[in-house]
Design a protein that fits this description.
This protein is 22% helix and 21% strand. By secondary structure, the protein is of the alpha/beta class. The protein has a 9-stranded mixed β-sheet with strand order 3-1-2-4-5-6-7-8-9. It is globular, with a radius of gyration of 20 Å. The termini are far apart.
């Protein structure tokens, strides 16, 4: 089996439960929810993707004819270390990596000593034996991979209610703020939801702070970030639906209906 790979690079995992861990990222080309072409974004199932997975022109990208060739490239990207107990770690991502990740490639990576993670949209069942499964469901899709190590939702997202995923078999539940022109507002909303629903944890794309081949660093002064008045403003605009006293980021006592109303108000302002 051959593999179309956009890029292979060494970095730190920037998201979720493995944040800060050294890893080789193997980004497979192609996705089943969007072509990767901007002209098709408006018709895509997933319209907010911020990743370039089109083609094979990234660092160490290309058409790999065999498992052996691809594993060799991944091994070359890992930085040799004498640290005791450190296992090489590869994150298979995309696009949608499960369009290409095969049992034979998984076996070859394990035989080379790698711990293997996958980041998938969950529409394809993952092969047995993957060491870390991260699922990021999308609206208007059938979620087939309903178990794994972590589930990560982009938030807020119209039609994607975190509560509908709470009964699934995952170890970790993450909300990741939607990165658009309302990014700081989305951070505030995600924090607000996590405070009211402690099963959920906040995931920030820290690779956009420290940078990697796909993202120039854009240092967000998160430590100096003071919550804006966005939620309070939205509350005042929707005073007939929400009690303003329960809408502040610092008051974790609002109910699910208030969360959904705030989220809808934000989406209407996009």
């Amino acid at each position: 089996m051959s593999y179309s790979v956009k890029e292979i690079f060494y970095t730190l995992q920037g998201e979720g439960a493995q944040t800060g861990r050294s890893a080789v990222f193997c980004r497979f080309a192609r996705c089943n929810l969007w072509s990767g072409k901007e002209k098709d974004r408006g018709r895509a199932i997933c319209q907010f993707c911020d990743t370039d997975f089109l083609g094979t022109d990234g660092p160490n990208g290309g058409e790999y004819a065999t498992d052996t060739n691809l594993v060799a490239a991944i091994c070359d990207a890992w930085v040799p270390t004498n640290d005791i107990g450190v296992r090489p770690f590869v994150v298979c991502t995309g696009g949608e990596p499960l369009l290409q990740l095969s049992d034979s490639l998984l076996e070859a990576l394990h035989n080379s000593g790698f711990e293997v993670a996958v980041e998938t949209n969950g529409t394809i069942l993952a092969p047995r034996g993957i060491d870390w499964v991260c699922v990021s469901p999308k609206v208007k899709t059938e979620l087939r991979q309903t178990s794994g190590n972590e589930i990560k939702l982009v938030y807020p997202c119209d039609g994607l209610d975190p509560s509908q995923y709470e009964g699934l078999d995952f170890d970790h539940f993450f909300l990741q703020p939607l990165d658009n022109t309302h990014f700081l507002r989305n951070i505030e909303l995600a924090v607000h939801y996590c405070l009211n629903h402690p099963r959920w944890r906040l995931s920030l794309q820290t690779q956009k702070v420290f940078g990697d081949p796909a993202n120039e660093p854009k240092l967000l002064s998160l430590l100096a970030y003071a919550p804006s008045d966005d939620i309070e403003l939205l509350v005042s605009e929707s005073s007939d639906r929400i009690d303003p006293a329960h809408a502040s980021l610092h008051d974790p006592k609002s109910n699910d209906r208030q969360d959904q109303t705030i989220a809808q108000s934000l989406l209407e302002r996009k």
